[in-house]
């Protein structure tokens, strides 16, 4: 075989192996970063949901405070 052909084939193999290795490593990194991002988004969504429930509970508490204040006012008026 011609030495030039052997060098060309070895160069091709080296290039293919290097390229495929780079693609695999890059793909693993992208998948890892996506998983991290998904966990952060899930934590944020949980926070938003908890805040919504707290706001709903606060509305109930404010309404209860209004009722209690009204009842206290009625009791003070009757004394």
Structure summarized in a few sentences:
The chain has 79 residues and is mostly helical. Helix content is 96%, strand content 0%.
Key attributes of the depicted protein:
79 residues, mainly alpha, 96% helix
Task: Explain what the structure shows.
- With 79 residues, this protein is mostly helical.
- The model has no long low-confidence stretch (mean pLDDT 93).
- It is rod-shaped and about 115 Å long.
Tell me the layout of helices and strands.
Elements lengths: L2 H76 L1
Oligomer classification: single chain
The coarse overall form would be: rod-shaped
Could you estimate the helical fraction of the residues in percent? over 70%
Please, what is the average pLDDT? 93
Name the structural class: mainly alpha
Number of helices: 1
Number of strands: 0
Supply Rg: 34 Å
Low-confidence stretches: none
Q: How many angstroms separate the termini?
A: 115 Å
Biggest pleated sheet? none
Strand content: under 5%
Element string (H = helix, E = strand): H
